[in-house]
Amino acid sequence: MMNKQEPITKAPKKRSKIITVLAWLIVVCLVPACCAWIIGRRVYWFDLIASQQMLISWIALIFMVLVLMSRRWIAGVVCLALVCVSFSPVLVSREWTLARVNLREKPDGAIRIVSCNMNPENESWEKDLSLLLSLDADVVVLIEVHPELSRSIRNRQHLDSSPYARWAHRAWVKEETTPCFILSQWPMNTIGTTQDPEFAQDLLYTRIYHPNGEFVVGLAHPYSPRTQQHWTRGNQVVQAHGDAIAQLQSNLLIPIILCTDLNAGPAQQRAKTLRAAGLRMSKPVLYGGGSYPANSSIPEPLQIQLDDVWATASISPIAWTMLELSGSDHKAVVVDFKLTE
Questions:
Q1: pLDDT tens for residues 238-287?
Q2: Among 203, 247, 255, 257, which one is most buried in terms of CB atoms within 10 A?
């Protein structure tokens, strides 16, 4: 009597091939996303994609785990390499964690810097300015201020009775620059940093004579990259900042702090330019969320860190935090520093 042959099923083998194809499709999709910050050095659209590089990195990490769980080892190793490439620009030269700033009391010996894009349409500017000035910061940097706030400081002695009677101003130039201020509790003077008339209107740097030691504070607010032309011009302005910072480090040999709204995230070309000039972000890696847009329904993981306080290695951040203001679409950044001996 002949034994009946069991039917041979090809379903498991077919499933295996499908999983392999899916694993490699994931790899193919991850390549341009994880490498966006590299391609974005020259290509506008990829630089915009790199504004979400941290989110891309976490998504790539999840996909890598899934591919490895499916035992597609070669595809998994390729995913691992892509994850490393993707994370590298958002982790380089940064602290993993820092204490939150104690807003009620500044530690002894700390140098407190506040930086905020005030929003030129901010009708609550008086309330928001009062909050920022109450933080006992040594220096307050106001970026893109309301026209009435600008006139009040320049023409109406709005700050004369406050600790911030000393200030420097970056003028508004139509379709070129936005009005900005550096306010200081301590003696200060403006430093010339470029002879190039094309970029002189964009740069503002001051020397602060603090009791603990002198340092430079500047501000950077290049064009928002809403068009390729604005992207190119903004990148050129940031490069001018990089050149100025290199010159200041060579000539002055004192710490340099740059308060920024780069209109770009930590992985984009503008941030890369500042790192090449010897600056480091203050925001710690494990502090979630971004600075823009504030007061919105957009989830924190999708917000972008446009704003931060960058510094040279001779002054170190010891605490960092962000504040939401009632009238601004950017969060204010508050950083406590200590001078490195």
A1: 999 999 999 999 999 899 999 999 999 999 999 999 999 999 999 999 99
A2: 257
